[in-house]
User: What shape does this take?
Amino acid sequence: METLRTRVGIVGAGPAGLLLSQLLHLRGIESVVLESRSRGYVEQRVRAGVLEHGIAELLERCGAGDRLRREGLVHTGVELLFDGCRHRLDFAELTGKAIVVYGQQEVVKDLIALRLGAGAAILFEAPASAIEGLDSDRPSIRFSQNGEERRLECDVIAGCDGFHGVSRLAPPEGALRLHVRDYPYGWLGILARVAPANDELIYCRSERGFALLSMRSPEVSRLYLQVAPDEPLEDWPDDRIWDELRARLRTGDGWTVTPGPIFEKGVTAMRGAVVEPMRYGPLFLAGDAAHIVPPTGAKGLNLAAGDVRLLAAALGAHFEKGDDSLLDAYSDACLGRAWLAEEFSAFMTATLHTLSGDPFEERLAEARLRHLVNSREAAASLAERYVDLNSLCG
Assistant: This one.
């Protein structure tokens, strides 16, 4: 079996793994990225689309900001729609910051181009089958490529391969604790070739269920409907989707969305999950391998980027100075942010989704929304967590 050698072995070429590789490169630290899928697949995989203020700045600083500056949509607020009325939360006024709407797949494209342009080792269609030697001084990743088994020996392994990857399952049974919450909601998401009906995101709570108006560009709309987590996609032809979006997003003054050709749709169940700790020996978990948040708070990609920012700094201190204090603090630092994001996402989910069957809970959610639009302090609390939650934990 052929054996390769690197300082940091990274499992997963999603935004977490690729950003970590770039941040390490800027510190002169060698890494190899293993990805089970093809380059085309990971570059087209549609996921999150909202970048926090600090994460957009991080991408700029690490050299991945050229297209982000040109094509990213800067939003200085969002709207809440309920009782047939739209209410704007002005992030710029409340926090002095903004978000950037820029698809996760675009971040991945930019980082892949940046890394390959620097001669990085990104091995696509190279699925990892096992992580070995975590209790030794020579940990390794077993993977296959072109039908051949290979091994990558590392000083440190970064597990950035998602909730169902090999990294989370590599430590001995009982070494990690998994906390899970399955939400009784799913999101039916679509991409449509039609100009967004609003310049900013609209989060809608209606008696028919939650809806979200978002976008990917001035010509492409991204919209979501609350459905059952196991909702059959075949039950939702295009006409029914647009009818339901118009019904939920309609306002008292007659505003609603304009339909257009749908070119992608899918149903996603909603789950919250946190792994504790996020380290076992030389293995460090990051991104979805360590935590999942429901998409209502727009935190998944941002949490992942926050993880690897801390991990890159910790590995820099380790390799450059022999200082392991940041590595030792990594898990606790990341978990503080992860649980804050879980709380925020749970708050947004409970406040905006309906049809719980509990009239008491429904009235509480309505009261929360009225409080948000009538109290500057409440609006500011939501805004600071939405716009730059990563900065709240350093």
